[in-house]
Amino acid sequence: MNAEIIAVGTELLLGQIVNSNASYLSKELALLGIDVFNHTVVGDNDKRMREAVKIAEERADILIFSGGLGPTQDDMTKQVLADHLGLPLAVDKATEQKVVQYHADMEREMSENNRLQAVVIEGATVLKNETGLAAGMYVEHEGKKYILLPGPPNELQPMFDNEVRPILAKLTEDSDQLVSRVLRLFGIGESQLAAQLETIIDTQTNPTIATYAEENEVSIRITAKGQDQDQCNQLIDQMEKQVRDIVGDYIYGVGSETSLAQVVRDLLVNKDYRLTAAESLTGGLFQSSLVNIPGLSLNFIGGLVSYSEGIKESVLGVSEETIEQYGVVSSECAEEMADKVKEMFDADIGISFTGYAGPKEVDGDKAGIVWIGLAVTGRETQTYYYHFGKDRNGNRKRSVLTGFDLVRRLLLELPSQKK
Amino acid sequence: MNAEIIAVGTELLLGQIVNSNASYLSKELALLGIDVFNHTVVGDNDKRMREAVKIAEERADILIFSGGLGPTQDDMTKQVLADHLGLPLAVDKATEQKVVQYHADMEREMSENNRLQAVVIEGATVLKNETGLAAGMYVEHEGKKYILLPGPPNELQPMFDNEVRPILAKLTEDSDQLVSRVLRLFGIGESQLAAQLETIIDTQTNPTIATYAEENEVSIRITAKGQDQDQCNQLIDQMEKQVRDIVGDYIYGVGSETSLAQVVRDLLVNKDYRLTAAESLTGGLFQSSLVNIPGLSLNFIGGLVSYSEGIKESVLGVSEETIEQYGVVSSECAEEMADKVKEMFDADIGISFTGYAGPKEVDGDKAGIVWIGLAVTGRETQTYYYHFGKDRNGNRKRSVLTGFDLVRRLLLELPSQKK
């Protein structure tokens, strides 16, 4: 069974946005054991959309569309498809009610074209949109399957996850199962990782193993084929053990949705430690990443963005002497920042970030020099030196992740404080 | 004249990487006035690649390939195309020399398959690869043009820039120019915007106008065709004026790379105002967005992440009475937070964020209720109430952007303090 992904939208053809939906869907379809042999992108154009559908019908069993389900004139995916299939359109009452209610709640005037988002192809299984208004659709017609999803990724992904995956899983029930596990690593580069895992990589059959580099991290994907999930997972367990024996120290978590911030959050909550931060170059990014996930307010109570030199002294209380003698980007300053913010927020752990974010035009050769301070109750405050690259936002992100990894490793050592 | 972009690579169909090359090329082609009506992705498969080429030849004048030029077994783009066109392959001596030299310099053993990267379609214009080894190609054959580029973006982009652009510019010399301008809006939904611009949208010919929804923002793209850039810009100016007459209040900037944070930053620097923030639910995201761009440290000196209730009192100084009487998510608390942080950081403007980020499971119906406080020297502190959605990170991002828009509008009113 194979699928073709058809992304609809002139903005894609103008290069205004990247087709991330195709990648997301491809990954998910691969896990379901469904082959994808073609991606297609067409614009908001009736004729060319029809042509794309006809071509796809020649070579795919499942056609998955993203985009073109909105309320404007350019949105025509369901209209074109309905006409092509010779099926009428109809209003889905539940979706219509939701659209009307949304505008009432927001105390916002609703223009009539919004109702279009509740129009579906007659006979379709309506796919609920939890994060937006436009209804998705699943249509079976003359042996082919058509799935219509909204364009915005934050609407498409939950809809696929909740509504489409069960449908496709049922379609592929009798095929081999594919199960993937992703190991997440920090602190090692991809070519080094590939070199260390060379033997495993060269001798792989089932499971398969592949390394991927992301910004500042690497991951390992182990994929097993088998008759059922259990058999797959057993094969993966074996290979995972081999991998951990070699590079286990760098593995911080499992799962493609896991993040260093999430792992730190879980450790803070489970071991009941309070964390605070004083951020200079990172400007709030560390703390912001931490509060992505709810349920943290007992263990992260707040922190400081001490962006300028003056604020480090006046608000945070770093001594004038320290700054005059060593400068703000120094081991001494990082140490004091960590100690002071820990005290100010009455925390168990205080982390500080000070450095030259760059770019090169602003900070010259100093761009990328970062000190991270880590103060812990009952231990000597440590400071860590890094010399990253020249890219400002790259340095900020890398500093934040490095900070999270330091806190993670620290928390793994510390005893639990949970009562 | 139109082009089709064909990206080659099974890793794309497995969703391992995103097709950023198609976006890059589309943007560049649009600027050259070359229409792109289709993107296609195929895997490292002879048969399906040929099919894609045949389909593209039916509908495009220019076929641009990315990927499949490397030294491994999976790399077959030039071989498949040469065979399809009935042209032989030949070794390009200059490229071969470069490949051999590279390995000698690196003291690296060169496996013979590396020489493949110097093989080109006979008669092709060889496109030099400045950042990698594989040669690119430009082939004219029976009225069609074929451009073969390497997959890695850091090889493709310079090759396009240096080698391909001049060729395409020559091809389009006598054609019309295409110029686009993007207007950025905040505070209005896409369907409302489309409704207000209905007349302009319905009567468009040249320029064309389209609306796009992004997360929390909308944009308007006006694209004009003309003999030269000046003529295009004049046409765009006329339509932009019509648009501003209707929805100008929501337009915060021009350009697809512009952001609310950037606009606020520029206003802070140009009018010389100091800004600080006390962030609760947003957790540092507002401040972090501000420091994305360098050069701000005189106008943003720092701020607070006052995540928990206790910190609002102990560090920020919000009175216990206020919190007991009104709660932390209230107009009164937002007002005091803004006043206190402005005082603490000795700023001209203090902004505060307090609310229930959600999700629904945590905050129930209160999810999405946000108060933003805005304190300005010499003015009465204002507070603003919002009821956003149920998505935690959506609410945080939306709060941040709403905060930026409030600061933006405020700064537009205030007189410059610059000496």
TrEMBL record, chains A, B:
Coiled coil: none
Gene3D superfamilies, sorted: 3.30.70.2860, CinA-like, MoaB/Mog-like domain
Span of domain MoaB/Mog: 4-170
NCBIfam families with a match to the protein in the record: cinA_nterm (TIGR00200), molyb_syn (TIGR00177), PncC_domain (TIGR00199), PRK00549.1 (NF001813)
PANTHER family: NICOTINAMIDE-NUCLEOTIDE AMIDOHYDROLASE PNCC, NMN AMIDOHYDROLASE-LIKE PROTEIN YFAY
Family: Belongs to the CinA family.
HAMAP family to which the protein is assigned, alphabetical: CinA_B
Name of the protein: Putative competence-damage inducible protein
